[in-house]
Design brief:
Layout (H helix, E strand, L loop, with lengths): L4 E6 L3 H12 L4 E7 L3 H11 L3 E3 L2 H6 L5 E4 L6 H10 L3 E4 L7 H14 L3 E3 L7 H11 L6 E9 L13 H4 L3 H17 L2 E9 L21 E8 L4 E7 L12 E8 L2 E6 L5 E6 L5 E4 L19 H4 L3 H12 L7 H20 L3 E2 L6
Parallel strand pairs: 1-2, 1-4, 2-3, 4-5, 5-6, 7-10
Antiparallel strand pairs: 7-11, 8-9, 8-15, 9-10, 11-12, 12-13, 13-14
Helix pairs in contact: 4-5, 5-11, 6-8, 8-11
Length: 368
């Protein structure tokens, strides 16, 4: 059983700087030993900011590094599949940002490769670690809300209508808001209520995004900036999801707005990203009331993170690394794993198919 985990990061942009590196820093069982990025200027900057660590421009070199036990992949969507397979081939444990691949086929292959190599695998579905989400899950699983009947989520952002770069090219991103934001809500709805078996979905593109932030022309967007679906769970429950980056007035300091709720036969509970240490809850016949999340749900068991420090909507994300390292040290599956990432991807793929064919789609999400 390993006692210390040496982590390499592929992709040293904002997500790694804001979420993953702080998570590594507070975990005494882990250390950052190598980084990789094709942007040499940024790579040198991170070496200075993050300390004396090995640096590579080619992910294959990091995958071969004997001083790396585990890898966090935080790169553009189209690179996830080849990077993960290469790291798995070299026996590295892997945590990968969502979406796992450009489609379910890629994601399922990543899962099977990790499973067959007996390495730990994890999908970085951040919002599962929000204290209020963890508590809502407890309320559902404990039966406090009765029989779950309905799930609903909204994720609204007020982002500039300028270019997203690679994120707006379909061959590189797969999809827009659907793969970037709504897929998170698809995942935690399945964590709460079980698998989605059938969906009817739609996407829309309202702005061309044919200019960069400094006004220079660029190829127009090929992906959605609004997505929505209605779903039927295998359990008999139903769900409604909606997400968009074009909701004016929902900036909230860059955090945006999120509401997710479960309605059961005996009560309802709701989670808000802007207030993740509190939950809204009501029993039958009463109004929704804000309540603090119980202390035991504010951090993952054993996590050294102090929930009273930092911005609540940011710091819970550090627990991703704690779960990843715990799974490696304890020699168990990480949660959520690549199979969860593949399952959510199957639903998201079905949204695109449903809209294209204008019909309900039955979802097959078994990665094999």
């Amino acid at each position: 059983m390993p006692s210390h985990v040496r982590i390499g990061i592929v992709g040293v942009g904002a997500v790694s700087d804001f979420h993953h590196v702080p998570g590594i820093r507070i975990d005494s069982r882990a250390s950052l030993t190598a980084i990789c990025d094709p942007n040499e200027g940024l790579l040198k900057q991170r070496q200075t900011e993050w300390g004396g660590i090995a640096a590579y421009a080619d992910y294959r070199q990091l995958a071969e590094d004997p001083n790396v036990d585990a890898v966090i992949i935080a790169t553009p969507n189209f690179t996830h599949h080849p990077i993960a397979l290469e790291c798995i081939r070299h026996g590295k444990h892997v945590m990968c940002e969502k979406p796992l691949g450009l489609n379910f086929t890629e994601s399922a292959e990543m899962y099977r490769a990790a499973r067959d190599a007996n390495v730990r695998h994890m999908t970085a579905f951040t919002y599962r670690f929000a204290p209020s989400m963890r508590y809502v899950r407890h309320l559902v699983s404990s039966g406090a809300l009765g029989t779950p009947r309905h799930f609903r989520s909204q994720r609204f952002l007020d982002w500039p209508e300028t270019s997203w770069g690679w994120r707006q090219i379909k061959s590189l991103a797969g999809a827009g808001d659907l793969f970037d934001m709504t897929i998170h809500r698809i995942d935690f709805s399945q964590d709460l209520l079980g698998p989605i078996r059938s969906i009817c979905g739609a996407v829309a593109q309202f702005v061309p995004r044919d200019k960069t932030a400094d006004g220079k022309p660029c190829p127009p967007s090929e992906v959605d900036d609004w997505s929505s679906l209605i779903g039927l769970f295998a359990s008999g429950a139903v769900g409604v999801w909606e997400g968009s980056t074009l909701m004016k007035g929902y900036n909230n300091g860059g955090v945006g707005y999120e509401w997710a709720e479960v309605n059961g036969s005996e009560g309802s509970a709701a989670y808000q990203l802007t207030d993740p240490n509190n939950v809204l809850i009501a029993k039958n016949g009463r109004d929704m009331e804000k309540m603090p999340v119980p202390k035991e749900f504010l951090v993952l068991p054993g996590s050294p993170r102090d929930p009273s420090e930092g911005k609540p909507s940011t710091v819970f994300r550090y627990d991703l690394v704690w779960e990843f390292v715990s799974a490696i040290v304890e020699e168990r599956d990480a949660v959520p794993g690549f199979h969860d990432g593949a399952s959510a991807q199957a639903v998201a793929d079905a949204v695109l198919q449903s809209f294209e064919e204008r019909r309900w789609i039955d979802v097959s999400s078994d990665p094999g």
